[in-house]
Amino acid sequence: MKFSAPEQAAQETALLKRLGEIERAINDLEGERDALRRLIVKVRRENLWQRDVTRKNSVNRILVESEILEYVASFRTKAIGSQSILTHLHKTHTTLKDATFRSYLHRLHARGLIRPRSRGHWVHRDFANVAETASPPTPL
């Protein structure tokens, strides 16, 4: 079966589009794999399983909260939005519900580990004062 030039171009375009979708999916999966590997190393390093936890979901809470802290701290003085944090967490904690995530943020804020910069935007406590007291750049 022979295709005309426009049909061949359309077929090639469709195949290239599908190939691009597959490449993006592979990249996403590799990102998830790498995040899970980091999580395993972290669990081993921190011996979370040997901590005195009172409830079975405490281990998961500790993991998620520490990941939130690390992610927020990685932005240093820049405030990061709750939705960005949740999107990052969904790479390794795919079943994390929004309400649970918000309760984790509330716990971290209540303990003074993160501070709100504006509605829905958070900064790590180590960088909160630096960011708040930093003066804007002077014009030239």
What does this structure look like?
- This protein is 64% helix and 8% strand.
- By secondary structure, it is mainly alpha-helical.
- Strand 2 (114-118) and strand 3 (121-124) form a beta hairpin.
- It has helices at residues 5-46, 58-74, 82-89, 98-110, 125-133, and strands at residues 80-81, 114-118, 121-124.
- The protein contains five helices and three strands.
- A three-stranded antiparallel β-sheet has the order 1-3-2.
Characteristic key phrases:
mainly alpha, disordered C terminus, 8% strand, elongated
Distance between the termini: 69 Å
Number of strands: 3
Give the strand order of the largest sheet, numbering strands 1, 2, ... along the chain. Answer: 1-3-2
**What share of residues is helical?**
55-70%
SS-based class: mainly alpha
What proportion strand? 5-15%
Order of helices and strands: HHEHHEEH
The outline comes out as elongated
What does the main sheet amount to? 3 strands, antiparallel
Over all CA atoms, what is the radius of gyration? 22 Å
Number of helices: 5
Low-confidence stretches: 131-140
In round numbers, the mean pLDDT is 81
Summarize this entry quickly:
The protein has helices spanning 5-46, 58-74, 82-89, 98-110, 125-133; strands spanning 80-81, 114-118, 121-124. By secondary structure, it is mainly α. The termini are far apart.
Topology, please?
Blueprint (H helix, E strand, L loop, with lengths): L4 H42 L11 H17 L5 E2 H8 L8 H13 L3 E5 L2 E4 H9 L7
Antiparallel strand pairs: 1-3, 2-3
